[in-house]
Amino acid sequence: MVESSKKTKGKQKIEIKRIEDDNDRLVTFTKRRSGIFKKASEIVTLTGAEIGVIVFSPTGKTYSFGHPSIDAISNCFLGVNPEPNNNVNPFYKARRQARINELNERHQNLLGQLDNLKVRGKMFKEITKEKNTQDWWEAPIHEMNLKEVLEMGVKFEELSKFLLNKLNEKSLGGLEGPSSSFPPMNSRN
Questions:
Q1: Could you say which of 13, 80, 97, 119 has the lowest number of CB atoms within 10 Å?
Q2: Are 74 and 50 in contact (CB under 8 A)?
Q3: How many whole angstroms separate alpha carbon 133 and alpha carbon 35?
Q4: pLDDT tens digits along 74-115
Q5: Is residue 16 exposed (0-12), middle (13-18) or buried (19+ Cβ within 10 Å)?
Q6: Of the candidates 182, 111, 186, which has an alpha carbon nearest to the alpha carbon of residue 154?
Q7: How far, in whole angstroms, is CA 157 from its chain's centroid?
Q8: What are the φ and ψ backbone dihedral angles of 144, each rounded to 5 degrees?
Q9: What average pLDDT is seen over the chain?
Q10: Which DSSP letter does residue 60 get?
Q11: How many CB atoms are closer than 10 A to CB 159?
Q12: Cα distance between residue 102 and residue 100, in whole Å
């Protein structure tokens, strides 16, 4: 029997009290400060909130995180009028607008594809209504002999390969309109 022994204590709950050792306290401060700033950044990213965090180290050094800036947040908190320059973060605004434009373009493209598919579906229904003959995939299997069933299996495999190839082309080729070419399939003899 193999014994498994842990090399570390892992994540354990610690008692919240002042750390007496100066070096340990400084290391803990540094790690916790990084964690707090990371969480503040996540809040900004997820919600677009304006946030400010100011931390003083045990040695008296000041650290701050602010979005859009610590000055803008402190001015807002103190009731001071913000500076007239509203271009605090033009990079983020430009990037957000570019992403919105890209998503709108993709949305319009998908709507166009959907309309195209609806039209093709209507055309297909009209063609099949006019056609009284039975297609090869609709043939009753119980009325076929072994040779016909095997031929139908081969046709299904060909169709499957064709469709997989088309899907691969579409996924590699980006968002294009649906293709109108289909594999040559003969009706049942």
A1: 13
A2: no
A3: 70
A4: 888 888 875 555 555 777 788 888 888 999 999 999 999 998
A5: exposed
A6: 186
A7: 33
A8: -95, 155
A9: 80
A10: S
A11: 15
A12: 5
Q: Which long-range contacts (CB under 8 A, 24 or more apart) does 49-55 make?
A: 50/76, 52/77
Q: Which residue in the block uniquely carries the two structure tokens 């605004």?
A: 93
Residue 44 neighbours by CB under 8 Å, 6+ apart: 50, 51, 67
Give the CA angle between residues 73, 53, 92 to the nearest 5°: 60
Q: Which two tokens stand for residue 108?
A: 């319009």
Question: Is there a contact between 58 and 29 (Cβ–Cβ < 8 Å)?
Answer: yes
Question: Structure pTM?
Answer: 0.39
Cis geometry, peptide bond prior to residue 140 (ω within 30 degrees of 0): no
Which strand (E) or helix (H) includes residue 75?
Answer: helix 70-78
Q: What is the pLDDT of residues 136-177, one digit of tens each?
A: 667 777 888 888 888 888 888 988 898 898 888 887 765 544
